[in-house]
Amino acid sequence: MTTHTYGMTALDPAADVRRHISLSDTVSQTLTMAWRSYKKMMRNPEEFFDVLVQPLLFTAMFAYVFGGAISGDVKSYLPLLIPGILAQTTMTACIATGTQLREDMDKGVFDRFKVLPIARIAPLAGPMVADLLRYTIATTLTFATGFAMGYRPGGGVLGVLAAMVLVIFTGWSLAWIFTFVGIIGKSSKSVQGMSMMIMFPLTFVSNAFVGANTLPGWLQHFVQVNPVSHVVTATRDLANQGHLSAQVGWAVVADLAVVLIFSTLSVRAYRRKAI
């Protein structure tokens, strides 16, 4: 009787297939995961609560409470406020990405993904593609609320559309930060807590709601390097003036840098969890 000895790699065909996944396969698998997340959102309409209510609530609250003190009246404050609300709303929506990821991992959903011959990035990027719908709803409602309160962007339709695209892309890029937090966090509560600690300094220690020149000198240094400040300024240039300024370019560069850094960190952390 002849005994055949086989290498360990022959017993793990999924691992072998993963090494040869093409870019087109990765895109297809990511879209499949996005469709899964989209159907999950449709079955749970409460997941849209934050992007439906927050734009209305925060725009009205900030405008009527701070408008007179900062700009003299509400209407004059809106060109400054609306881009800031866009940044805040999008970042708040991003937090849900990390929290839901952690909940899925705790339920064992990702344990099944780990044994499938798919790209490691697909289960992470898929939900983020589906979340583009949430960011689109949030930006649309923020602008609509501003219009109802008297906001008239000087950039016209094209300027507003360009500003929306920039904010949505920024939301998608920042979601990678919270994806990484979702992977390394121990529970959904800890992920939410860490995410809030990231969101508040980035949004409130910026030029989102007040001019940077009104802040203390030592604080202005952080505001100037805060990526949210670049995005807010770029959004104001596009929506209020229709101007494709250098700030728009810097905002895109900052977004791409965030994607490059945190997508790499997220995939590496996910691989370590899979071992």
Characterise the protein shown here.
The protein is an all-alpha fold and 275 residues long. The protein has one domain. Helices cover 78% and strands 0% of the residues. The longest helix has 34 residues, at 74-107. The protein is elongated and about 60 Å long. The model is unreliable at 1-18 (pLDDT under 50).
Please render the helix and strand layout as text:
Elements: H1 13-18, H2 23-43, H3 49-71, H4 74-107, H5 109-114, H6 122-130, H7 132-148, H8 156-184, H9 188-204, H10 217-225, H11 227-241, H12 246-274
Helix pairs in contact: 2-6, 3-4, 3-7, 4-7, 4-8, 4-9, 4-11, 7-8, 8-9, 8-11, 8-12, 11-12
Distance between the termini: 37 Å
Question: Can you tell me the number of structural domains?
Answer: 1
Main beta sheet strand tally, sense and closure:
none
Helix content: over 70%
General shape: elongated
Q: Show unreliable segments.
A: 1-18
β content, as a range?
A: under 5%
Structural class: mainly alpha
Number of helices: 12
Helix/strand order:
HHHHHHHHHHHH
If you compute it from the alpha carbons, what radius of gyration comes out, rounded to the nearest whole angstrom?
Answer: 21 Å
If you average the pLDDT, what whole number results? Answer: 85
InterPro entries: ABC2_TM, ABC2_TM_bact-type, ABC_2_transport, Nod_factor_ABC_transporter
GO biological process, one term: response to antibiotic
Family: Belongs to the ABC-2 integral membrane protein family.
Subcellular location: Cell membrane; Membrane
